[in-house]
Here is the input.
Amino acid sequence: MGIPFLFPQRFLDLRLDRLGRCNLRCKMCYYRYQEQPYPVLPVEKWHWIAREFFPRSRSVGFGNCAEPLLDPALPELLGKAVEYRVPEIRFITNATLLDEEKARLLVNSRVFSVTISMDAASEPLFSELRCGAKLNQVITNLETLVQVKKSLGSNFPKIQFNFVIMKSNLSHLPDFIRLVTRFKPSEINAYFAHLETGCPHEEEIIDATHPDFPAVADEAAALAYEAGLQLHLPYKASGSTTRTSSSLTLKRLIWSMKRISSKLKNHPPSASLSAFRMCTHFAMFEKGSLCWYPNFMLMIQPDLRMIPCCSWGTDPMGPIEEGMTFEEIWNLPEMSSLRGSLRTRQNIPPNCVNCMEATSRKVL
Here is the structure.
């Protein structure tokens, strides 16, 4: 499938890394076991990507796998996103480098959301999982961001959290909800760790069949509901009042509608309209597809290789070459083949068959 016709102008969720570096060596991340970092994407090539992709993007995320606060060109890069009027500028960070100067940069650049990667509520486990980080420092940096927003009279960026569920931190999820409630996050995403090539942490990988998971998830969901927080889990907790947005038992369309609708309330109108048109398009014309993500999501690495969704894992596509247009890139044979195989349910790639995101949320 080419560009979906119901939302041809801005339909893309784009995520970028210009620097293939991180200041931490987290237990669940391949950076911990990688000797050489990814190459650095020259700024001029980054401008080419911005020129081709930003007019098509309803959201641009800074920070895919690397740490964007390490980039000395960050003010220039954020300025380009503002120049192209991207409806949602998103930022994913471990927050260890989030000082007052950078907090002001994010607020003044109209960043819509800052997603903090945190996976524990106690210092010993946090330092073990996020090697090189200190929980108290991250909390202090978040308090700085809150104060900067207040001083500048801004409600943005919204604070969100990612929690990677592993065997060692599963029981910490409820305490994590209690810890971050003070920041009134607009969203908390809890998802299972993925097994990356070269990362010997198989003992940490669990899924929704883990015997302790249902009870822990129910408790976390109840705490989130009491605090008025939006918590996304890999399944729906058993309590009828929980505000989770996905379920192992609900059909994919219902899950997708809930996920989209939960994001509409406080989003920019153009981004909300795009999300509504996207859901309408797939509900009407692509309802038989095994997965929708490759139809509206793309990640570009510093070496100009591409990943079609956040759960793809290994074997990136490309690389793409400077000078290619958006249409040429979007309709590359390997990209079109992936979307076609998901639509026809034939020759499904191994990365999709073994996708933990798809199987845990019943996208497949």
Q: What stands out?
A: The longest helix spans residues 135-151. The two ends are 18 Å apart (CA to CA). The chain has 13 helices and nine strands.
